[in-house]
Each structure stands twice: as structure tokens, then as C-alpha cells.
Design brief:
Mean pLDDT: 92
Amino acid sequence: MKARVKLVDGMMFVGESGSGHAVVMDGAPEYGGRNLGIRPMEMLLIGLGGCTAFDVVQILRKGREQVLDCEVEVTAERAEMDPKVFTAIHIDYRVTGHNLTPAKVERAIELSKEKYCSASIMLGAVAKITHSWTAVEASEAIDDGSASRSGRAQS
């Protein structure tokens, strides 16, 4: 795996992945940026969310669950002093599908957390990571947005 980051202007950088994709990163104005791109630490949270969402959907689909959508919201707290590492991270999953089995949703999240999500395992070495989830029946999501089951786990 390989990545390249190049200064463009001020505090704006373009990050290029080994797979040929690019993203703009920029700093806040108080640090010389112009707020024209995502912050590097936000990229870490997006990477974490993408990594675990990928795992959960893949595990559920392999288990023949009818997943139609998966939304992951990641929130984090950072240390007050430099280095301002993440100290606490919460991952909230909203999985929508037909007749989802709550135990399978919970198990998929556990497998991602404990075995498959490299980002989660790496960040979990420095930050306390907690999880919550909601499984939504697709017909309910269309009708009134109500959830069928939810849970909360801590690690």
C-alpha cells in the first residue's frame, strides 16, 4: 500500500492513493489554510468509518442478510495538549435491510471490531472505542423511519 501527499498552496495538500484516487486536505485559517478541504484527522475518522462499514456489510451479506444501506457516524474526542491524539471514539451504525437478524448485526460489528477492521484495532490502541447500532427494517425506513432494534457495546 502506498500514498503520496503534495503541498499545493498555503496549507492545502493533495493526497493520492496507490489505487489512483485523490483527496484535497486543507488546514483551518488560523493555521494558514483556507478551509478548502478535509482536515487530516477527519480523514482518519472517515477511514475508520469506511473500514468498519465495509466489514459489517460484507459479513452480513456473506451471512445472507439483505442489507440495503449502512450508515456509520463516527465521533471523537481529542487530547487537549499536543500531540492531540484521539482519546475516545464512538461509532454508531445504522443498518437498513429486509428482515435483518439483530444478533447477526451485532456479531458483524463485533467481528469488525475484534478481527477485521485494521483502522479500529490500530486506533483502539490509543483511544477508547465504543459502539452502538440500529437495525432498520427497509419498509419502516420508507414509511416512517422507525428502527426495529438497537444496541450498544463498549470496548
